[in-house]
Amino acid sequence: MNLLVLSLAPVVVIAAYIYFRDKYEKEPLRLLLFALLVGGLTVIPILFLERFLDRFTVLFPWLFAAAWKAFAVAAFSEELFKYLALYLLIWKSPEFNEKFDGIVYAVYVSLGFAAVENILYVMDGGLSTGIMRAITAVPAHAIFGITMGFYFGLAKFYEKQRQSLKQKALLFPILLHGIYDFILFTEIGWLTIVFVGFVVYLYISGLKRLRELSRQSIYNTDYDLLNEKLSNTKP
User: Which positions, given as ranges, span the membrane (predicted)?
Assistant: First the structure.
């Protein structure tokens, strides 16, 4: 029971943080919970695709094998199905009416996947695995979600750049996820320093994207309120 709590604690903390960062017109809890559920269910098709792609790992020598497992087997499979889940969940939803909403839903989908994955790893690895993943793997999945949601949110509202922004919403999380896993899969001791630096970079870049879209949401909300007041003002 303690390991289960440890597995889910970072997911709950990050989910609450993202929820309260959405300062204007919070998303419906039912839809957020559904996003978590959908994210958790992506584990099923991801496992099948990963097992298929992993068969080709033996074709590559050492570092190339690590790169294949990191970028193709893990990052591509996981981020692809997260992206598909996000798109099907909210692209045409009337609730998707702010750029910041892209981040909110993308993070919740990512956290749904991270919750299931974390339970599996922590139940097998124990307390030390749970503590380590609470400060690395789970926040990393959330930041991959922030990156995806950042470009996904922009794509919704910038029609002229929509196609390129949609591509970035998928490709950039794959790149970040792949680098993260590649450092680990190489099992080179001195790369631990690089890994720590990369995790710090993920934290900084994730918070930067959060602040940027949060400010834009505040501006848009204030602008809409001003227009509403002007339209209701009698001449």
Answer: 31-49, 56-76, 102-122, 134-154, 174-204
